[in-house]
Design a protein that fits this description.
Length: 364
Amino acid sequence: MSDLNLFQQLYCLSMVSNVVSQSQGSEQELERKMKQELDEGLPKLPGQWVTSWGPRVFKEKNPTSSEGGPDNVWYAAVEKTRKICVVSISGTARNSLADIVQDILVQEVVDFNAWVKQWSSSKGIPKPQTGTPNESTSSTTAYCAKGTCLGAWNVLRNTGTAADKIIRIDQYLSSLDKSYSIVFAGHSLGGALSPVVALGLLEANMVGSHDVKVLPSAGPSPGNDKLSLDYAERFPKTPASATDYQVFNMDYYNALDIVPQAWSLNPAQDRNLDNILTKILHLGDEVDETGKLSVELAKYISGQSKVQYTPIPGQMFTGPPTPEVIHSWKDVKEVIGREHVRAYWDEIGITDFLIHFERKFRSA
């Protein structure tokens, strides 16, 4: 593992936030398991990466029950010689109804800037409220999917549980020496939450004077065109000449992954729902009708928002070719899973590190 470059290390830290995604347990039990995995895994990376805040596991219902999986998981790790702090936010967990809500609650939207204006280092983060976009505001106001905002709210409002870190993640980041740069990272659902969390904290001036970057991958569109523009203005492509995974502030996505295609209805955009059945999944008669109904339902939900979902700027690669024809839902699920997880590991060159966690990652 000693030959992994910095970006490969950052993507490893991003993916590892999903290590308990298939597990069940209380918040405390899952945090203990997550910490054990981090303590074992991080020393295998080059440098001196250590967990510095968390890990935090949040369960919306029955947090003390040993049944049920996590809803959101996040942690921070630092490399003291390079002065880097990574905040890694997990993707969708297998047994989490709350995660499903965060994924698909897109028909309701939140006035993002109005919400962020209420954020406070001293008073915390209020619960996001549903906005009411109309023709005059749908393109001039930054709207974010309600589900994405609820996920960001979970990450931002909960304190750590370690005795010396019973503070929110923003409070921890503000306490870091100003020489540290901060990277918000996440895959899948985490690829939507990390840009929103980073943008909100910067707009609310809640991370001090730190240099802040974002490393999202496979993220669905979190909001409308104005939100995407605001994000791009705050977080330009860095470095501007990058052509592969070694880039900050862009959603790194596989062109054959269906998740980043949500929730845009505009076929002119590089990621949109039409791509799922025209460019990615070539379905046989056995599954074609259900596939079409699924995409039409996704389009309907997106359209109900009254805003034009627009992906944040992205950096594309193309994963392994999908079959010419897919005849069963079992094969559909296998293709979707391969293009959404393993294709990224292989393209970035981090499979050898993450293979240890593969069974636990499958639902990320």
